[in-house]
Amino acid sequence: MSNTANKDYDVIIIGAGIGGLVCGCYLAKAGMKVLIVEQHHKPGGYCTSFKRNGFTFDAAAHSFGSYREGGNMRRVLDALDLDKRIEIKRYDPSDIIISPDYKITFWADTDRTVEELQQAFPEESESIRNFIRHLTTAKPIDFAVLRRKTFKDFLDRYFQNDRLKAIISIPILGNGALPPSLISAFTGSKIFTEFLLDGGYYAGECMQALPDALAERFKELGGTLKTSCLVKKIKVRDNEVEGVVLEKGNNVSAKYVVSNADARQTFFELLGSNVVEKDILHKIDGMVPSLSIFTLYLGIDRPPATLPKAGTNVWFLPNYNLEDLYLSAKNMTDDIEYFMMRFSPDKKTILAFANAPFRDRKFWYDKKLKFIDTFIRKIETTLVPGLSTRVVYKDAATPYTLYRYTLNYKGAAYGWATFPSQLFTPELKMTTPIKGLFLTGHWTTHTQGIPGVAYLGCDAAKLILKKERTYKK
Ligand SMILES: Cc1cc2nc3c(=O)[nH]c(=O)nc-3n(C[C@H](O)[C@H](O)[C@H](O)COP(=O)(O)OP(=O)(O)OC[C@H]3O[C@@H](n4cnc5c(N)ncnc54)[C@H](O)[C@@H]3O)c2cc1C
């Protein structure tokens, strides 16, 4: 289908996150001449891994969901024949939630999870069954009607018990970075179905296996991946893209450009204020990014006796007031109140995550070590006694680190905050007011998380392919 005419490429994709890589694979598979430009030295964005002192750590994302038969992630990877290249395992249970009064396990077998919830909350038995049935049988349109409601509205339709509502919502606060009263019911339900009811999948030995397999497939399909190269500008003439300018001033031309980079960077820096209408820039300027995450990396010499099951996400919920817990994370009190931790499948490392706000380099330079020790102590006093005596390596990624490695605005973990008012913002759909410029990834206000951005990568490619067919008619 290649139609470069006098251009260097048909499509240039800015960023090799999962969104950009999937988009590139679909376009290259359709025969287009595609270049992906990534500023980091390896592909993956938030899905990279790294080695330190003999330990391998996932830098940010560490598992994904929606890989059941017919799930979004399964469909995307199957269509690229990636299911045969990377070994995808599912950890069962995917998640365990520990609160002062309950321990609730999310099993691969949903009926077993339902039974466990019913035993803990017998008075809500029927509502639990109906709630899970609704989410597991819902069609896309059923989710779409939830977009103007909050997840709290949605839970209130089913449940009376505030503790049950908090237990269901803690992974949504952790994975969506908003409490139930602020997150849209659409996003909350998606997280619940895609991360919990069908969660716990892991690619190969570490998360890097997923972007590496996508990058390899992309190149096999004829695509070109250029790493360690920052895109400085998107060139536009008469409201139509012409290509990009790379960091050393090289111009590369293309008929289409897809930005997988943060949308503020795309609109304010790569396009610039004289290209996009002031109203649009003003609107984007007023939008709120999602909260960031402080990630703790621990290497241990031997597994502590009481360590939770390897591969399972374990959530610690100290009380049932999620609105207050969210505010304490957002305002960054000296303590860490709620968190999630995961003992790696090889039982050599621990990753632990706490929502945290963006602060500048100096702030984290002063605070990081103290915060690491506070976090270790917290895990030790709540879930893993004796942990500190087993730690032989410790480090952390602060919200500033996330920004530094991926250029995501304020180290936002999930793109824009998914308030109902920010979902599906017309200016931040996959299409843009500039002809030939498309967006993909978690800054499009459509989605977040690995299955979501993978699906959007595929959707952005389909939009371009549709346009090409229209041009050719
Ligand atoms: C700590 C943490 C844990 C998470 N855990 C999970 C999890 O377990 N499961 C899950 O499903 N989701 C998780 N998420 C969310 C998930 O990782 C993201 O939603 C998803 O990976 C985003 O993918 P993306 O392709 O949209 O963008 P990104 O991964 O941000 O990729 C964007 C890419 O663009 C590149 N780029 C930016 N600007 C330029 C430029 N000017 N020139 C060239 N390249 C550029 C960046 O370097 C980056 O590689 C987590 C997020 C965080 C922060």
Distance between the termini: 13 Å
Q: Tally the structural domains.
A: 2
Number of strands: 18
State the CATH architecture of the largest domain: Alpha-Beta Complex
The general outline is globular
Quick overview:
This protein has 473 residues and is of the alpha/beta class. The chain has helices at residues 18-29, 72-79, 110-120, 125-137, 140-144, 151-158, 162-176, 185-197, 209-220, 263-271, 278-285, 322-330, 361-382, 399-406, 449-472; strands at 9-14, 34-37, 49-52, 55-58, 88-90, 95-98, 103-106, 201-203, 224-226, 231-237, 240-246, 251-259, 292-300, 313-316, 339-343, 349-356, 391-397, 437-439.
Provide structural commentary.
The chain has 473 residues and is an alpha/beta fold. It folds into 2 domains: 9-86 and 205-287 and 425-472, 3-Layer(bba) Sandwich (FAD/NAD(P)-binding domain); 92-199 and 288-407, Polyamine Oxidase, Chain A, domain 2, CATH 3.90.660.10. The protein contains 15 helices and 18 strands. The protein has helices at 18-29, 72-79, 110-120, 125-137, 140-144, 151-158, 162-176, 185-197, 209-220, 263-271, 278-285, 322-330, 361-382, 399-406, 449-472; strands spanning 9-14, 34-37, 49-52, 55-58, 88-90, 95-98, 103-106, 201-203, 224-226, 231-237, 240-246, 251-259, 292-300, 313-316, 339-343, 349-356, 391-397, 437-439. The strands form 4 sheets. Strands 1, 2, 9, 10, 11, 12 and 18 form a 7-stranded mixed β-sheet that branches. A 7-stranded mixed β-sheet has the order 7-6-14-15-16-13-17, sandwiched between helices. A two-stranded antiparallel sheet has the order 3-4. Strand 10 (231-237) and strand 11 (240-246) form a beta hairpin. Helix 6 (151-158) crosses helix 8. The longest helix is centred in the last third of the chain and has 24 residues, at 449-472. The relative contact order is 0.18. Bound molecules: flavin-adenine dinucleotide. Flavin-adenine dinucleotide binds next to helix 1, strand 13, helix 14 and helix 15.
